[in-house]
């Protein structure tokens, strides 16, 4: 696997537990304890998915998610909100900010791994579809250019 997952949570025990679970499953876990640390880690690139807590001092998870979605280089980065907030309004706000999934604590570790796998697979499919669209566009452009050259050569 070797996908790099950024864990963002102000609870060091939670971060270490999540990192251990992820590493047992073959993921590479990167740990951050605040929204500001998360943004610094994301600026370096190389992250494949973010596990994001909402309730954090300073920059909360909603602010982090908004900044991710507002940054062109990160806007398609998969983000799973992992929070103790159970109210529907928090889930709705996460969806509006384009979270990929919303998982509540306490969570079943295997279910979380399954959700991560699903989100990563979906992300790969979307990237593949985008590549196919780009290739099709290039092929259409090449056909037009080649057709134009033939027309120009026949005159």
Would you kindly provide a written description of the structure presented here, covering whatever features stand out?
- The chain has a five-stranded parallel sheet with strand order 2-1-3-4-5, with helices on both faces.
- The longest helix is centred in the C-terminal third of the chain and has 46 residues, at 109-154.
- 56% of the residues lie in helices and 15% in strands.
- The protein is an alpha/beta fold and 155 residues long.
State the gist of this model:
The chain is of the alpha/beta class and 155 residues long.
Mean pLDDT: 86
Strand content: 5-15%
**Termini gap:** 57 Å
Major sheet: arrangement of strands: 2-1-3-4-5
Largest sheet: 5 strands, parallel
Number of helices: 5
Helix percentage: 55-70%
- Uncertain parts: none
Shape: elongated
Helix-strand string: EHEHEHEHEH
Computed CA radius of gyration, to the nearest angstrom: 20 Å
Q: How many β-strands, per DSSP? A: 5
Structural class: alpha/beta
Layout of helices and strands, plus pairs?
Blueprint: E1 4-8, H1 12-24, E2 28-32, H2 35-43, E3 49-52, H3 61-70, E4 79-83, H4 88-96, E5 101-104, H5 109-154
Parallel strand pairs: 1-2, 1-3, 3-4, 4-5
Give descriptors for this structure.
155 residues, alpha/beta, 5-stranded parallel sheet, 5 helices, 5 strands, 15% strand, elongated
